[in-house]
Design goal:
365 residues; two-stranded antiparallel ribbon
Length: 365
Amino acid sequence: MSADELEAAAAGCIDTSPRTLGQHPYFVALNAYYLQEEAARAIRAGEPTSLTLEEVMVKARALGVTVLRTWAFNDDPSKAGDSAMQVAPLEYDEVGLRGLDLVLTRAFAHGIQLILPLGNYWNDYGGAKQYVAWAGLPRPLEGDPRFFTERTVVDHYLEHIRRLLTRVNTLDGWRYGEHPAVLAWEILNEPRNRGLDAGGDALRAWVDEVAAQVKSLSPEKLVGSGEEGFEPFLKSLESAAVDFGSVHLFPESWNWPPAEVASAGARWIVEHAALARQSDKPLILGEFALRNDGAFTLAERRAMYRGWFTCAARSGLAGTAPWLFSYDARPDEWDRHTFYFRDGSAPQDPANRYADIVIGAAGQR
């Protein structure tokens, strides 16, 4: 297929009424998960702020972006003395926490709001496996289902959330649960139903409990489940404590046939938008990307990005957030889905990949 045909297939959505995230208008966000980590390292080095943090926020605004999605967790003991926040069960490294203080404070100064996942399903930065290991349970594994069902583990996570959301930012005096830079919390990054009951009852019970905890500590902020859109997406979305849904889109990681990626991506967006309308809740495309070293050329990837941005807007989504916006010094090989807005370059420079497309999509607001 030509680039024009790919774009048309990716944009193949029916116009529907827009849904907003609270009072926030339709937005294009950037995923920049690494901000707390970079901020903590700068603080540990005695620097007043993180140059990486400032670069990302300045460039986000230059792209027309006012929302960033970034981790509010770092539960990896191997990062103790570097950037970890929780280094042992309910034991914290103050420098790691001040890294998140800095992210919140500087986001507010730059006029940026944040979507903040509170933990990870995957092993990166600790994840579900680390909580299960901390509980002393045998043979912890990535995405361990016991994270959602073992009372000791769930109670640990709930208490961690309580401590984090009641923290008072050392730089600006705002309690995290009330911080003006927070647009929304996600109770986990990409929770899955793997190893739990097929109907999703156990995951739904966990979503109910954890989302209610977040809502009680941060009642004026929005709460999402952080899901990718797999089963049981609708059951979790219908939780009374969940304010919005999210879907992610990584066709190559999910082994979709290349010839079907453009249209299947549009179908994925449309079908989940319909489910969100059924629940009367807004939906965001919280992550989406194509590999820079995959089967598609840059021109083909650009066509599909333009199409999916269009499809999301037509389908009434509240926002879209491509993965992964990178700072200039970050090597490409750290993540094969990166794009940039390199210093001194024009947005449409091929070295930036999608910066001009982000500008165009952000202008749809």
